[in-house]
Design brief:
42% helix; four-stranded antiparallel beta sheet; flat; 485 residues; 13 strands; alpha+beta
Amino acid sequence: MLKMNKVKAFFIGSILSGVAFAQEVEQEVPDTQVETEDVVLEEAAIEPVKDTVVTFKRIKLDGISAVVGDYVILESDIEKTLIDLKSQGASTEDITRCGLLGKLMEDRLYAHQAVQDSILVSDDEVNATGDRQLQTLVQQIGSMPKVLKYYKKEDEASFREELFKINKLRMLSERMQNNIISEIEITPEEVRQFFNKIPEDERPVFGAEMEIAQIVKSPKPSEKEIQKVIDRLNEIKADVDDNDASFSVKAILYSQDPGSKSKGGFYSITKETGFDKTFKDVAFSLQEGEVSEPFETQFGYHIIFIEKIRGQELDLRHILIQPEISEDALAEAKAELDSIRTKINEGKFTFAEAALNFSDEKETKFDGGLLRNPTNFDSRFELTKMDPSLYNQVRNLKDNEISYPILEEDPRGGAPKYKLLKVTNRYDEHVADFSKDYIKIQKLALTEKQLETIKEWMNDHIKDTYISVNDSKKDCDFANNWVKD
């Protein structure tokens, strides 16, 4: 027998991905007492579950657009998804309500099947994600009461509960999608077949690109300056430990980390967070409430305060102070690069050999100084998508020309450095060529294969999953066959 509390749980559990939040269903129940098992959804075009007897009683509900497995999609879910897209600055001109409903149904089919396949997302993972989102919202809006007011929530507990439902569905959906395509590979022959089936007049055009190499010299601070910084950090640590001074206030006053200074040095990290390894090793060696000894990373010298430990996640605050680099040290680094540039131009060694032997940048020196595009780790940079500062540094360089030493400040808070730059290859805008653009074509072919696999998976699981679409939505031109015959 389908119980009323089960039905109500479906409605309240209806959620959206991202940051849009579902609202509880408005209901009007007659004054006369209604038995739980007699309640019916008059306005909901939902087919009864097999072997379930449901009788009907008038009730006013947020209209149901569709049901996928155990998930209900309300009319308001579609509307709130549209509002959320607009709030993020996305263009919604070509987005239809039918298209949004189809996407919401896809997400719920992934999540439903993830549960069936025992693909798990732990409550700790979901709660940790919600904690990070709330911390970000509090930092952006100002305080938890302001956040609750902004999202029209009565209390933090109910807000967290709703975040939990949203994130659980999203994480299940993402994990299912990754599971479907994780083992898909593509052979060179498949790449060739993919390319050959594209008509010549429809082959993609790749924009102008270049490959760039660099040699870096990082000036070193004096031992006196290093000790000065360590002593300052020890003073701050002692004031926090002995006098109960606020670590957060100290970070605002003294930290040189642009990413956390205004937040009192705050970060929330796991062992997978892309931070410096030494920083993470120190952080995860500390107890809650403990302040570390001063230690060094590539960015300077730090102390860390552990504010809270939540399983495998840490809430911490840190203070970064960089030893001052003297003008003499900067001048020495520049002079060394000037000498290296002269010797390369004289043919005493190649740029790649100089990078290997003289560059201070470990990430590039063993690859001839070659820079990697941070978006895809390819060696090519498309001119229209390059970082503007890098483009301005190389745009006037001719073939085989080496720049004069360029002083560069580290946007992540590291010490300044000097570098030489060279454009090692140029690629004009051109129609895709199989031999020259194999890596790009391979990625396109792999993407197509993944999409085909997803499509097949969708078709198979739509057939095997309970799905109901409201009569008012059955005329939608869905990408998938959601409306079963």
